[in-house]
Amino acid sequence: MNISAPFIRRPVATTLLTVALALGGAIAFRWLPVSPIPQVEFPTLMVQAGLPGASPETMASAVAMPLERQFGRIAGVTEMTSTSYLGSTSITLQFELNRNIDAAARDVQAAINAARGQLPANLPNNPNYRKVNPADAPIMILALTSDTIDVSRMYDAAASILQQKLSQVEGIGQVFVGGSSLPGVRVDLNPMALNKYGVGLDQIQATLAAANVNRPKGQLANDTTAWEVHSTDQLLKAEQYRPLIVAYRKGAVVRISDVAEVSDSVEDVRTGGLANGKPSVIVVLFRQPGANIIATVDRVRALLPQLQASIPQAINLSVVIDRTPTIRASIADVEIALLVSIVLVILVVFVFLRSPWATLIPGVAVPLSLIGTFGVMYLLGYSIDNLSLMALTISTGFVVDDAIVVIENITRYLEKGMNAFEAALRGAREIGFTVLSMSTSLVAVFIPILLMGGIVGRLFREFAVVRSVAIAMSLIISLTTTPMMCAKFLQREEGRRHGSGTDHGHQHRHRARDRVAVRAERQPRFRDHAQPRHRRRRA
To answer: Is residue 21 domain-shared with residue 78, that is, in the same domain?
Structure first.
């Protein structure tokens, strides 16, 4: 059975298939994501719950513990960590590597619903969860600084304007704003004054809550006309809170300003950010799983002038951290090493074969095998990273072996006097199983890495698969394109060795050699018949 025979007999179809493979790989190369290492996703979910004013001990006992009891019943949980703060708690759940993150999310939501009856009744909102990847670092960090605007206003601009615009950028997964909090009015009560006027904390809380309730006002109407009554219920400044009446004592009013110090501040005074020694608001950008880091950062940088124009001019928006320079440099170095290895392999082949046409065939097979690998990488969801490019660089010396073995076997029959077409058919038929066994043995070396489990196995699995795919591509090309090119190009080399540049001269020499052979055969026959006749005449 000759697998290469249909491809040798149909060179046009083989050429079109080869060009289609090269175009598919080139297009896939442009769509492949770029990352420093292979994308290894840890099935991890983070659950967050908040209870304003609760101490960390209360959050741990009343909120975290009921949730942990329900989460402990979920199958596949390998690690559960909870951290309680003032007014909030977060629980991190890490699952087995083979666990589907979407199925795990459904189980977590069911556990949250089951624990709702055991949580405090005054919990403002149900606990929520989100998917996280602990190994994924931010791809970019922006900083907002200003010499005239306070941090609270910068945080307001970042949370209300920049966060929404950046979340819409292709490739951006999550955007976090830190370094401050939203503007707020802080009321610092004086215990001595509260004791003097006999005012309790519940009265202060009721007064502040009643001043911010959006209640219906009603309308004024007569027989023909109606007027809606509107008023602003929400108080935004400290000066609007100071006159509020808390109680009446001995015919006099007790106001907020009498028992507390009211000031314009932020919701959380225990957060802060610095950029180059200046108070700033930090915007942290994370990418989507599988997104191209370089392309995503380029989109964000192109959007920076528009973002700067959408916030007050007194706020300066700058890039603090960008992960792409090191990634660009490492990927560029590996790509250069890959190109140099291809050139060196082709030069070594030329030195030993000493034939331009014979060197052209592996010179096409080597880059074609690597380019075709990019198409399979795109279908498998892999990325261009240091490990995948290293696998391609190492494969350069292996993918050329199959083509050279096929060329040598076909050349052997050319040197015996067989024409290029018949030599390609016979040489490819004899060497096909040998090439298959060579490629299979090279792929079998990486079976232990393919079967390796854990984080290390996931990290190096892409390396093993890419190298195996490159060898498989080399096998396919050596059995299809390489014999076809040998049947076409090695025939011209054969004609040049005989001193003629045309097939007509080559055929003419064969015909002349055939006539000489016929004459040589006829001459002995004439002598054999003539010798008996001469003897009979003598007799």
So the answer is: no
**Cα angle vertex 342, ends 340, 346, to 5°?**
115
Q: Which helix (H) or strand (E) holds 141?
A: strand 140-145
- Please count the other Cβ atoms lying within 10 Å of the Cβ belonging to residue 383: 21
Do residues 257 and 129 both lie within one domain? no
418 within domain boundaries = yes
**Is residue 111 within 8 Å of residue 69, measured between CB atoms?**
no
Residues 235, 236, 241, 242, CA torsion sign: negative
CATH number at residue 194: 3.30.2090.10
Residue 139 lies in a domain: no
User: Has residue 28 been placed in a domain?
Assistant: yes
Any domain includes 174: no
Stretch (H or E) spanning 174: strand 172-178
30 with 123, same domain?
A: no
- Token pair for 89: 């708690």
Domain match, 493 and 352 both: yes
Q: Mark whether 369 and 444 lie in a shared domain.
A: yes
Per-residue confidence in pLDDT tens, the chain, 539 aa: 678 888 989 989 999 999 999 999 999 988 888 888 787 767 888 899 988 778 889 999 999 999 999 999 898 888 899 999 888 899 999 888 888 888 888 999 999 999 988 888 888 888 988 887 766 778 899 999 988 888 888 888 888 889 889 988 988 888 888 887 777 888 888 889 888 888 888 888 888 887 776 666 778 888 888 888 776 667 778 888 888 888 888 888 888 888 898 888 877 777 778 888 888 899 999 888 777 888 899 999 999 999 999 988 889 999 998 888 888 888 888 788 888 888 888 888 788 777 787 788 888 888 899 999 999 999 988 888 888 888 888 888 788 888 888 888 888 888 888 888 888 888 888 888 888 888 888 888 888 888 887 777 878 888 999 999 999 999 999 889 988 988 888 754 444 444 443 444 444 444 444 444 444 444 444 444 444 444 444 43
Q: Which domain holds residue 359?
A: 5-37+327-503
Domain CATH number, residue 426: 1.20.1640.10
How would you write 356-402 as a 3-class SS string?
A: HHHHHHHHHHHHHHHHHHHHHHHHHCCCECHHHHHHHHHHHHHHHHH
Q: How many domains does the chain have?
A: 3
Its pTM stands at: 0.67
Q: Which residues contact 55 (CB under 8 A, 6 or more apart)?
A: 86
Whether 488 and 374 map to the same domain: the answer is yes
Answer yes or no: are the C-beta atoms of 323 and 138 closer than 8 Å: yes
Residue 180 and residue 151 in contact, taking contact as beta carbons nearer than 8 Å: yes
